[in-house]
Amino acid sequence: MYDFEIAAADKPTLYRDLTAALESLVAGEPDPIANMANASALIMENLPDLNWAGFYRNIGGELVLGPFQGRAACIRIPFGKGVCGAAAQTLQVQRVEDVHAFPGHIACDAASASELVVPIVRNGELLAVLDLDSPSKARFDAEDEAGCVALGEVLARVL
Ligand code: SME
């Protein structure tokens, strides 16, 4: 059983503890699916106000649904399409306050209002994107972005 001490005093503390928990969860485990599955569970349990947390993998230049927590989602997303596809194409974090105002946004769950997508890159190559959705507009701020980039850096070593 895994039971992590994750303090939610403030966002930097929350993400520091979450990053440490993720590091210990993936330590010594080379299987990327297992690591993404545990990462999505850890994120969904510990970050408030999410309705979806998970991964799309880069399979031959197309994003394919990976391990996640939340409602069933679209399976394949071309690079350049929607928020995840924009992150995959540009290798830039996409932090979207209102997904309904984002051109080409793919509505997998009508409840989603804001979204944060972090590309996970190793040696210049896109491995996957980490996708977080919230039912609240502007749920993600710069501290969430920095915290999730740190989670992505841990994952880049083990995907
Ligand atoms: N809304 C995303 C699609 C993936 S789901 O949110 C799980 C997008 O536009 O990329």
How does this structure look, described?
- This protein has 4 helices and 6 strands, in the order ααβββαβββα.
- Helix content is 35%, strand content 26%.
- The longest helix has 16 residues.
- The protein is globular and about 40 Å long.
- Strand 2 and strand 3 form a beta hairpin.
- The chain has one domain: Beta-Lactamase (2-Layer Sandwich).
- The mean pLDDT is 95.
- By secondary structure, it is of the alpha+beta class.
- Helix 1 runs parallel beside helix 4.
- The relative contact order is 0.18.
- The structure holds methionine sulfoxide.
- The site of methionine sulfoxide (SME) has 15 residues, from helix 3 and strand 6.
- It comes from uncultured Sphingomonas sp.
- Belongs to the free Met sulfoxide reductase family.
- One of its GO terms (cellular component) is cytosol.
In short:
The protein has 159 residues and is an alpha+beta fold.
